Amino acid sequence: MKATARHPGRKIKVTARLKDRHTGEIKDYVYESTNDNIAWQWTEGNYSCDCNRSIAFYGLTLDNKAVLSCSGDENRIELVSLRH
Ligand SMILES: [Zn+2]
Predict the structure, then answer these.
(1) 49 C-alpha to center of ligand 1: Å?
(2) Residue 73 C-alpha to ligand 1 middle, in angstroms?
(3) What is the DSSP letter of 46?
(4) Which of 52, 63, 77, 81 has the smallest number of CB atoms closer than 10 Å to its CB?
């Protein structure tokens, strides 16, 4: 993974490649973020857990229920790679 660069106030295009470990399905979750700590978000932050990763993976909005509940140490949705 790339080291985090700081781009204050700028939108960064992020591509997170995600894999459902149960089905083997792989999807790219592409979004824009002004957050300058993308890698942290995916390793320690909101996107480190199945609850939010499943929303990204299955394309739900935040108004919907997450498909998966919190997983502790064993995420079903795996982060394969992260580009930003
Ligand atoms: Zn969670």
Answers:
(1) 4
(2) 10
(3) G
(4) 63
